[in-house]
Structure formats: C-alpha cells, structure tokens
Write the structure tokens for this entry.
Amino acid sequence: KQEVTQIPAALSVPEGENLVLNCSFTDSAIYNLQWFRQDPGKGLTSLLLIQSSQREQTSGRLNASLDKSSGRSTLYIAASQPGDSATYLCAADNFNKFYFGSGTKLNVKP
Amino acid sequence: EADIYQTPRYLVIGTGKKITLECSQTMGHDKMYWYQQDPGMELHLIHYSYGVNSTEKGDLSSESTVSRIRTEHFPLTLESARPSHTSQYLCASSGMTGTSTDTQYFGPGTRLTVL
C-alpha cells in the first residue's frame, strides 16, 4: 500500500522567504502527484498536478518537482506572503486511488 | 473555479440516527470520491465511483454506504450514526482535461458530530 510522508509537519517563516516543502512516497508506480492547499475548516484547493512523465510544474510563485525514482516531490514557494498560510498536502495517484500525506502547516508571519 | 457542492456543511446529530451527506458536481466528471479526515490528520479514501452504478470501497473501512444513480450525484449514508463517526467528510471529483490526466476537485466538506 502506498505511504505518503510530508516533512516538516509545521513551518513558520517571516514574509518574503523562499521555502521548500517535501513529500515522499513509497510506491513509485504513480499516475500523477498533486499538491493541494487546505484552509481551516474548508475543502482542498488543487495547486499543481505533475504527471508521471513530467519533472516539474510551475504556477506563479509555486514550483513543484517530481522524482519518481527516488519517490520524492518538492513544492517550492517563492517570496512567501501571509496569505500563503495554510496546510499543504501532497497526494499520490496510484491509478485512480489517491493517497494523501498528513500535510505541512505553514505560517507566514507579516 | 470547480463546481462541487456538499450539504450540509455542519451536522450535529444523536446516536442511532440515519443520515445522508449530499455531494453534487456540475462538471460532468465520471469519477467521484469520499474521504474522511480527522483534525490534523491525513485524508483517507472511504468510497469511490468511476461512473453511474459503479461504487467501490476505499482503503479505510467505513460503515457508510454510497450510491451513484446519476453522474452528478454521489450521496453517502450512515444507517445508524455513532460517536466514532464524528469527523470531516470531503467529497471530490475528477476528470480529464484534454489529454492530460485527472485533477481532483474538492467540495467544502461536511463536519459531522455524533453525540
């Protein structure tokens, strides 16, 4: 069974810092990997999806990379802002069954 | 903006009651999912559907049941609610965008409390 781990569990940074969130998975036979954002009491918002044949995806200040062979993905957030404060989740898609990590809770201080 | 809806958003109910959590999407997605999430914990897949009249159990055992009679509707039912069912329930759907693979879209969730 796929296991997804996210490190760190929590992160607090001052506004303007660049930061990296890490996601690792045990089964490299994934269809894709998605990064989500979850605000308190709300559902998840999709940020980036990386297909298994891709190495990275970019959207604005966000860049996600995927290394299937090592079972790792990273989410890079440039020039962090207080509005980026949320929990960030990664999910590995093993052919239509999604496995989530427990998330990294990010706090960006003004 | 994804169009996936869940009702109710919050539900407090007594033990033994039957409840149905509603989930609807207007994107015409074939695939729909139910997840359970306890506070600060990861999401666990409890049910999924690949289309009308198709339902499967996820990896986390659940006493709930689901049905998929229409593409846009994927309700979850608990015949007899218990305090152990207290959790947040998230519904999601996914489909293909051109030739690219599926992106999951989530509803806002239903926070269930069973007294």
